[in-house]
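LAB NOTEBOOK - FOLDING QUEUE
OPERATOR: T.R.
BATCH SIZE: 2
PURPOSE: Compare the predicted structure-token outputs for two unrelated chains run back to back under identical settings.
PRIORITY: normal
REVIEWER: second-year student, initials M.K.

ITEM 1
FIELD SEQUENCE / FIELD STRUCTURE:
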Amino acid sequence: MAEEAAGQKESRYFKAPVVSVAPMMDWTDRHCRFLHRQLSRRALLYTEMVVADAVLHGDRERLLGFDAAEHPVALQLGGSEPGKLAAAATVGEAFGYDEINLNVGCPSDRVQSGTFGACLMRTPQLVAECVAAMKDAVAVPVTVKCRIGVDEQDPEIALDAVADAVFSAGADALWVHARKAWLEGLSPKENRDIPPLDYGRVYRLKQKNPGHFIGINGGVRTLDEAVGHLAHVDGVMMGRAAYQSPALLAEVDARIHGEPAQPLDVEALFETMAAYADGHIARGGRLSQVTRHMVGLFQGVPGARAYRQILSTQAVRAGADSRVLFDALAAVRTPREHAA
């Protein structure tokens, strides 16, 4: 069988276990990823989805540029035309990305109008053609992120069809958001919460594909939950929890990879982020473009409310620089009476 032959090949993909931060539109930009890399050396980071046409015809440095410190980092592409995806993958590889991922799970109106994203769950053979074209074009791993099905599809049939197709085409890994996507009747935001999670479906997929990397995504809130999933699958992808409480990433290297546990060095983190922010400002950027990703760093810590208020109000002001970061940090060190 093609599946068995593929499973016998030595995969170039990251060895299990893997914890990654999900691709999230408007969130996982290069500044977010730089912050997350300071918290974990080992977590796999993903870009926001970038449409293949934008890569081919847009401002590539703006869309694809990243700091070398972000490695390992994967580029997620959106599209449904094998030739364009292959060309965009080639560009991504030239930029230095460690992985090219195809989005087969996003349910937004934008992807529906372009018949890609979650729409591709209905056309597994086309997904296979896209994967095969990208595999022929690049040497880095090519992976897919999908749902367990869309709309009226039976997840037992739909997910197997996609998995069989992409692995036969040579995909190095399949990341599965363990919910259906409802293209009719639910908004993209509702699709992140309303369709019920079915982790068991992803576990069964892994049981059927022991020689292939299967990762799980959807509703994973803590590293304890991640560890539980890793008893059944090869990787866990965390989304909103990692973004809204990024400090949890500081435990990934020890909890998941067995490295010596070390307390988060907040002083060093802020020194690094301050230098990074000032460099971004010197190139014409704004402080708030960096600090907006840092707002959740001190969830539940005395002084966190004052910290958030300082970042939210001062970082957006004209001429704001990294001094705002240290003003905010001081509020956590010496909590104000009104701070939560």
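ITEM 2
FIELD SEQUENCE / FIELD STRUCTURE:
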Amino acid sequence: MRTRLAIRIDAMLEHWFPERRVFLRSETDTRFIRLKPGTQLIAFTGASLFVGWTIIATAVLLMDSIGAGNFREQARRDQRTYENRLNALASERDSRAAEAIAAQDRFNAALDQISKMQSELLASETRRRELETGIEVIQTTLRRTIREREAAKDRAEGLMAASEGNGDVVLAASGGALGALDVMIEALEQTARERDQVTADAQAALTQADDMALQIKAMQEKNDTIFRQLEDAMTISVKPLDKMFRAAGMDTDRVLSQVRRGYGGQGGPLTPITFSTKGLAPSLDETRANRLLGQMDQLNLYRIAAQKAPFAIPVKAGFRFTSGFGYRRDPKTGGRRMHAGVDFAGPVGTPLYATADGVVVHAGWSSGYGRLVKIQHEFGIETRYAHLSRLSVNVGQRVSRGQRIGDMGASGRVTGPHLHYEVRVGGNPVNPMIYIKAANDVF
């Protein structure tokens, strides 16, 4: 059976691959090699596989080369798009910074205007009290004058009655009696003159009282205008600050309470000023004045709190925002890991500034951070400035918002010069852009 199958296979192969002989001739001998159909099939198959492999490999290399070229071109296009986007963001950041400076100027101008209005309000209140005191004095004088006039009138009527009742006796009296009558007449005339003077004084006092009433009315209208301007200014100034703190996730009541405790010295600039009502029910103006002074105190507390929270940006010169907060690809290992801050790239030596008032708790080398500055602020907030090339502060030093703390560098675990900026609340990292963006509408 096998022999027949082999014969049939050989016959089929003989049809396609007939037996061939290859002669090899030398000088003394001639030999030949017989190529059987099976051998030719194996050789043909091997040659076909080799040619096919060569074609496929060449095609794969060509496709890979074309694909790599397209990928590099796409990468270059993505890089150009990314750079254009970063430049646009940098331009927008510069415009926002200019707007923040303009807003800060407007805010300072509003504070100056509020201070002037407060001074005018206090002066007008003092003047109003002086006018009220003057009116009380005039009214007292008028009442006393009226009483004296009535008493003089009663005395004059008594003298007139006495003179009429004793008329016959007087006529019969001697020259001494006539002298007494002249004295009486003179006294009556003096009394009449005093009465007329009292009447004139009373009329003048009434006229003066009317003038003072008009002055008080005009002053009340002026006070009402000042009150409305102050109330509008307080609304415009306090609401954006309250919104800024709430946008940053901070409890405004707790923040203001903490600032008030830290600035609670009696007689200081934060001590609330109120108008005394002398034990009486407060008037409408006194109520409005006390409410405005309370809002001014709140505005002052907000102003101090804004200096103690990291609402500023640490880099004022040109920079590129190269990495945000959250999980990202590690530029060193390529793995995925948490990035606890934001990165601002710029030239080595770019000045860096504190974003809020605080105390330096670390200034030196710290493993992957390189040269690191840590600043402890109020409200349990800490900021970190890493990879610096130079430090300008020392541990224990108290710094103010906007004070230079060092220069940008490439120390520690980095791929190039930049600032790694962190904000931590209660030891836990939070996104610094929350504070920076919250302050865009105010500063």
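REVIEWER COMMENT (ITEM 2): The chain is about 60% helix and 15% strand.
FOLLOW-UP: none requested
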